[in-house]
Amino acid sequence: MTQTAPKPLLTVEGLSVEFGASRVIDDLSFSVSRGQTVAVVGESGSGKSVTSLSIMRLADMLGAQFPTGRILFDTANGQADLLRLDQKTMRGIRGKEISMIFQEPMTSLNPVFTIGDQVAEILKLHEGKSNTAALAEAKRLLDMVRLPDAAELLTRYPHQLSGGMRQRVMIAMALACKPKLLIADEPTTALDVTIQAQILNILRDLQKDLGTAIIFITHDMGVVAEMADDVVVMWKGKAVEKGPALEIFDKPTHPYTRTLLSAVPKLGSMTGQDLPKRLPVMVLQDGEPKLAGVERVQDTARYNADPLLSVRDLFVRFDIKKNFFGKATHRVHAVEKVSFDIHPGETLALVGESGSGKSTIGRTIQQLQKATAGNVSFAGRSLAEMGMAERQKLRQDVQYIFQDPFASLDPRKTVGFSIAEPIRTHGLLDNTAEINKTVDALLERVGLTSAHAKRYPHEFSGGQRQRVCIARALASNPKLIIADEALSALDVSIQAQIINLFMDLQQERGLAYLFISHDMAVVEKMSHRVAVLYLGQIMELGYRRQVFETPSHDYTRRLLSAVPIADPRQRKQLAAIEGDIPSPVRAVGNEPVLYAREEIAPGHFVARSA
Amino acid sequence: MAAFLIKRLLQAIFVVIAVTLTVAFAIRLTGDPALMLTQGAGSITEADLVKIREGLGLNEPFLVQYFNFLKGIFTLDFGKSFLGGTPVSLLIGKALPATLALAFTSLIVSIVISIPLGIKAATSRGKWADQLIRILSLVGLSFPNFWLATMLVLLFAIAIPLLPPSGMDGFASFVMPAVTMGIILTATNVRLVRTTMLETLRSQYIMVARAKGLSENVVLYKHALRNCAIPLITYFGLQFGGLLGGIVVVERVFNWPGMGTLAFDAVGARDYPVLQAVITVLSLMIIGINLLVDIAYGLVDPRIRTEG
Question: Which residues of B fall below an 8 Å CB-CB distance to A?
Answer without folding.
Answer: 3, 203-205, 207-215, 223, 226-227, 229, 300-303, 306
